[in-house]
Amino acid sequence: MIKTKTVKYTQPLLLVGGGDVNWPVLLSLLDKGLPLVAVDGGANNLVDHGITPDLIIGDLDSINIKTQREHRSRLMEISEQLSTDFEKSLYATEAPLYLAFGFLGRRFDHSLAALHSLVKYRAQKRIVLVDQEDMVWVPPVADVFEIRLPHGTRFSIYPMEPVTFETSQGLEYPLDGLSLKQGVAIGTSNRVNGEDVRIRVATTDVGAWAVIVPNDFVELFVS
User: Could you report the per-residue pLDDT of 70-91, keeping only the tens digit for each?
Assistant: First the structure.
């Protein structure tokens, strides 16, 4: 991690990148008074929608002249090129939760880089990526994962690293004894068949895995 000053937030932090943004969901969270940080070219997205971020972080190579001129006092330039602008925004801030928009879709390589950051920071930060349909996060290392979702909710698991599950409750297709690995077996397009989903991971094989559900439930994280 590159040494830089850290901006601390006590509330969940909204991050906006330069990709496709789900504006209705973002605006609903802004109405709750959550702080907002633009990540490099994401500042252009916000300015075009008449929204002023609290801070703009990145190497600033994607910010247009209008944005630079109108928000000069909010710029935090981090020039190193060893990490993406998304990662720069993560290590330059501290927040109890990150809800990140504009990092999935449009460019697939950018989406992969964002997923890389979820794995890299899963032990230190709670990060949820939100796109037009879904939200995705990587649970921290723990024996048990639990969440409450309505019956019939689409619920997908994708192994970022090899991972083995001991048991599961509340899913149409149980994960009991299932080992997942990219190119071998995955757990997408499952469904909730009860309100409480409970998954126990084998303690000997706790690789990183992503949870993907519809973005209708993003406010579960901030309620």
Answer: 777 788 988 887 889 999 999 9
- Exposed/middle/buried for residue 20 (C-beta within 10 Å: 0-12, 13-18, 19+): middle
Looking at residue 220, its pLDDT comes to 84
Secondary structure of 109-178 as H, E, C letters: HHHHHHHHHHHHCCCCCCEEEECCCEEEECCCCCCEEEEECCCCCEEEEEECCCEEEEEEECECCCCCCC
100 CB burial (10 A radius; 0-12, 13-18, 19+):
buried
Two tokens, residue 106: 């449009």
CA-nearest of 49, 61, 55 to 22 is 49
Give, in order, the Cα–Cα distances in Å from 164 to each of 5, 44, 45, 191: 38, 42, 40, 19
Q: Which residues of the chain have pLDDT under 50?
A: 1
User: Which residues contact residue 38 at a Cβ distance below 8 angstroms, ignoring those fewer than 6 apart?
Assistant: 15, 16, 45, 46, 53, 55, 56, 57
The residues spanned by each domain of the chain are 7-132, 144-207
Minimal CA–CA distance to 16: which of 78, 80, 214, 44?
44
Output the pTM of the full model.
0.92
Overall CATH class of domain 7-132 = alpha beta
